[in-house]
Amino acid sequence: MGHAVRAAELEAASGVASGIASGIAEAALTLDAGVAAALPGHLSRPPAGRRWTALATDGGVVMASLSEKDPDVGHIDLLAVHPSAQGQGRGRALVRAAEEWLAGQGARQARFAGNPPCYAWPGIDVRYTAAACLAESLGYERYHVAWNMTADLSVDLSVADELARLERAGVTVHAADGDRGRVTAFVEEHWNERWAWEAEHAAGLHHAERDGRILGFAAWGSRPSWFGPMGTAPDARGLGLGGVLLRRCLADQRAAGQATAQIGWVGPLRFYSRAVGARAERVFWLYRRDLA
Ligand SMILES: CC(C)(COP(=O)(O)OP(=O)(O)OC[C@H]1O[C@@H](n2cnc3c(N)ncnc32)[C@H](O)[C@@H]1OP(=O)(O)O)[C@@H](O)C(=O)NCCC(=O)NCCS
């Protein structure tokens, strides 16, 4: 310890998200290898109606946000201290500075919990144990558990037989490239605007339709490298659409060079387990603390 970093020394750096923060995130976020550097940039392009900041110190960065629809609740979206600078008080100072910023914006509570639809994780991965210890030592309460599932992409992802079967039932499946507006409208109508935002910003989006009516969708890459969300309209469930749409996305992710895919913030354990043999793996603790 000994090295205290005062909030006054932290600077809100608008360029931090793409520059310094990426390097620190890449070095510190070892459970997110390959994608950590992209997370600050991802968080710096949130939906309209969200206020956010990135606060930096030498070797450390924290990002925080709050949504105008739920202004009482502030989120600490990303926290990272370079391994060479850890254990010297920077993490603690950064969280305190983020809390101060959130309180200044009117938040009454701070959370280590994903702020959907634009988030890095649902909460603190339990294996980022130092971060969980930090949250607890700062008085945060663990109030919820969330998890991802991992799909091994070396499994058989072919859908030719199912596509033929669906076609006989009048259903066709498409990559939603030119049709994104129609698909996102479908997602918003059946679910909510958060999922619609994720569908709109997905790297890949597939949908099924019959007689010009969309029946289901699946998306990946809105949260960089993760799968989701997906959904089938209630009256089209049981046709096998979900499994086909899921495998179409996972095949895209494999083609993009991924060996595994994270199915984020699940969700129907049994569906993913049966459809592609996915296993529950990353577990996240969600923390909250009332701000004075
Ligand atoms: C979590 C992290 C940001 C902490 O930053 P830091 O600058 O090392 O933390 P500090 O020096 O301010 O330590 C503050 C508290 O954090 C906790 N902590 C820090 N290092 C720890 C360790 N190795 N083991 C357990 N707890 C630890 C302790 O509670 C510590 O206070 P205490 O020693 O008085 O109990 C840093 O370890 C990190 O970047 N880890 C990898 C990325 C990460 O986990 N990010 C969060 C993702 S949700």
Describe this structure in words.
With 292 residues, this protein is α+β, with helices and mostly antiparallel strands. The protein has two domains: 7-145 and 285-290, Gcn5-related N-acetyltransferase (GNAT) (Aminopeptidase); 155-258, Gcn5-related N-acetyltransferase (GNAT) (Aminopeptidase), CATH 3.40.630.30. It is 30% helix and 31% strand. The chain has nine helices and 13 strands. It has helices at residues 20-28, 39-43, 90-104, 129-137, 160-168, 180-190, 193-200, 241-255, 269-276; strands at 11-12, 50-57, 60-67, 73-81, 109-112, 124-125, 141-152, 172-175, 204-210, 213-220, 226-232, 260-266, 279-290. The protein is elongated, with a radius of gyration of 20 Å. The chain binds coenzyme A. Coenzyme A (COA) binds at residues 28-29, 79-81, 86-92, 121, 124, 128-131, 133-134, 137.
